[in-house]
Amino acid sequence: MTGFFRDIAPVTYEGADSDNPLAFRHYDPDELVMGRRMEDHLRFAVAYWHSFAWEGGDPFGGPTFQRPWYPQDDMARARDKADAAFEMFDILGQPFFCWHDADIRPEGATFAESLRNLEEITDYFAQKMEGRKVRLLWGTANMFSHRRFMAGAATNPDPDVFAWAAATVKTCMDATQKLGGQNYVLWGGREGYETLLNTDLGRELDHMGRFLSMVVDYKHKIGFEGAILVEPKPQEPSKHQYDFDVATCIGFLRKYGLENEVRLNIEQGHAILAGHSFEHELALAAAEGMLGSIDMNRNDYQSGWDTDQFPNTVPEVALAYYHVLKSGGFTTGGTNFDARLRRQSLDAQDLIAAHVGAMDVCARGLKSAAAMIGDGGLEAALADRYAGWDNPQAQAMLTSDLDTIFDRVCSGEIDPQPRSGRQEMLENYVNQFV
């Protein structure tokens, strides 16, 4: 035991009037929302990399955090880090956690040594999970930090790197399976390019498609019952990443025949970097039946890069969960806090408080979204706006041809008159609930 979280009691729900900074004011796991427990709707997860592996550095300065398990270079410290992680899971009552392989085990001198480290810590995790509620939401492979991946993993011009990446994913899928993970995620951190001058874009996309097909094949081979998820991001670290946004990912999956096998893990910060809103990305994925899970965070709107801050804006979160609930809610997916402390927030208490606040924000957003759905105002407004399409003649037009439509317009039968979109009224409506 590290004692890192000593003297911090398990967090409990105390209600909106509580002045305890380490108590839930809005997140009551057992509260029923649309007939389902709040905990089962939200399915919160702690991100192992930001909470335990990140050392507080940024592009202009080195680590600011001092943790008992630093430096993260041997298995004894990996176990210490796991001890601290599971202490925090207990304190927060989180039902899930997520990891990359590089977060939980030290890098070995060889692939075989790294694999031994991964297998050892996987067994240690399994022991820690016995008798606890916490489960693995998803595992994934870090194929972007090590210099071998500087030109990509599946899209690397060196076939040896492709092979190394394939073997790495196999080991991480095996570990995820062993721990009962409910999803496996692939984020192509460097699956993109810096310049087209040295990039065969078509070849790289084909290799990426083949790589993902092998992942799906292996899922079925080992009987993994969870979902395979890919995570869109437009840039950073690569200048242009192939998994730019939800629309790009859907087009990619359809091109390679994977649209029925793979869903999307969508992050708020990545949506902003792509020039979209989080709700846009969620709504599009839901409309195409590909919404799998979410990474919940926020960006600093002045910085222009992925700052991975904890969510604190209820209206944004409410609209996100509105689309999650409208799509039927999570099945294997959940709400992973892909968020990190600010590098001046040094204490163990800061890490707990950040998650407590974020969980409360999400709880408020979920309840607001459920209230909007229950009221039905947005659905009624949509039905009214598109009511003209319920007309049989309008429906027939969709199976008609240009000449027939042309004749109808020329006959003077129709005379389109613009109607208000009532955006301001709808925005005011939403604000009644948040």
TrEMBL record:
<feature type="binding site">
    <location>
        <position position="267"/>
    </location>
    <ligand>
        <name>Mg(2+) 2</name>
    </ligand>
</feature>
<dbReference type="GO" id="GO:0009045">
    <property type="term" value="F:xylose isomerase activity"/>
</dbReference>
<keyword id="KW-0963">Cytoplasm</keyword>
<feature type="binding site">
    <location>
        <position position="267"/>
    </location>
    <ligand>
        <name>Mg(2+) 1</name>
    </ligand>
</feature>
<keyword id="KW-0859">Xylose metabolism</keyword>
<feature type="binding site">
    <location>
        <position position="270"/>
    </location>
    <ligand>
        <name>Mg(2+) 2</name>
    </ligand>
</feature>
<keyword id="KW-0413">Isomerase</keyword>
<comment type="similarity">
    <text>Belongs to the xylose isomerase family.</text>
</comment>
<dbReference type="InterPro" id="IPR001998">
    <property type="entry name" value="Xylose_isomerase"/>
</dbReference>
<dbReference type="GO" id="GO:0042732">
    <property type="term" value="P:D-xylose metabolic process"/>
</dbReference>
<keyword id="KW-0479">Metal-binding</keyword>
<dbReference type="InterPro" id="IPR036237">
    <property type="entry name" value="Xyl_isomerase-like_sf"/>
</dbReference>
<feature type="binding site">
    <location>
        <position position="338"/>
    </location>
    <ligand>
        <name>Mg(2+) 1</name>
    </ligand>
</feature>
<keyword id="KW-0119">Carbohydrate metabolism</keyword>
<dbReference type="GO" id="GO:0000287">
    <property type="term" value="F:magnesium ion binding"/>
</dbReference>
<feature type="binding site">
    <location>
        <position position="231"/>
    </location>
    <ligand>
        <name>Mg(2+) 1</name>
    </ligand>
</feature>
<keyword id="KW-0460">Magnesium</keyword>
<dbReference type="InterPro" id="IPR013452">
    <property type="entry name" value="Xylose_isom_bac"/>
</dbReference>
<feature type="active site">
    <location>
        <position position="103"/>
    </location>
</feature>
<comment type="subunit">
    <text>Homotetramer.</text>
</comment>
<feature type="binding site">
    <location>
        <position position="306"/>
    </location>
    <ligand>
        <name>Mg(2+) 2</name>
    </ligand>
</feature>
<dbReference type="GO" id="GO:0005737">
    <property type="term" value="C:cytoplasm"/>
</dbReference>
<feature type="binding site">
    <location>
        <position position="308"/>
    </location>
    <ligand>
        <name>Mg(2+) 2</name>
    </ligand>
</feature>
<feature type="binding site">
    <location>
        <position position="295"/>
    </location>
    <ligand>
        <name>Mg(2+) 1</name>
    </ligand>
</feature>
<feature type="active site">
    <location>
        <position position="100"/>
    </location>
</feature>
<protein>
    <recommendedName>
        <fullName>Xylose isomerase</fullName>
        <ecNumber>5.3.1.5</ecNumber>
    </recommendedName>
</protein>
